[in-house]
Amino acid sequence: MTPDAVAAAMTAVARVDFVPASWRDSAAEDRPLPIGLGQTNSQPRTVANMLHLLDVRPGQHVLDVGAGSGWTTALLAHLVGPEGSVVGVELEPTLAEWGASNLGNYPMPWARLLPARPEVLGWPDEAPYDRILVSAQAKEMPPSLVKQLRPGGLMVIPVRGTMLRVRTDDSGAPEVTRHGGYRFVPLR
Predict the structure, then answer these.
(1) 121: number of Cβ within 10 Å
(2) What's the chain's average pLDDT?
(3) CB 3.0-4.6 Å disulfide test: which of 15, 40, 101, 136 passes with 187?
């Protein structure tokens, strides 16, 4: 994936469409914005960095954990195109409903945002995934998400303040690289 692909996605999927009305005047600012229930719409530079690390390709099957407002789900959908598919999950039911509504304003039927099931991390029903994006900070690497990756798949996840890029080898074992410090709401 080229940097141009991420820039094109961020132009095509306007952040302003995924923030509460009271914050729309701030949507162009490079900072996280509150979306309610203690959750945020992540800083655009952070989202772009995560998407570059994730290296999403057209036609891939992608999971978006902590989808919130639906912005990252829509960005991922733009990147995979109609040949691909994106499943976004959000634990807060009211945010999941709002995020799905926001996503519905873009004509990308190959993407959907669902309420996460309590006590189930990710969306194992449709695994394995080529890519997994996690927009919440884990205390440790979640084995249940690693298991949802296809061999050779990639996951980008913040763990204890460090952005990790996880690639699974042919046997499904994770190979981890570190990519700087970040702050996110907790993964639960």
Answers:
(1) 20
(2) 93
(3) 136
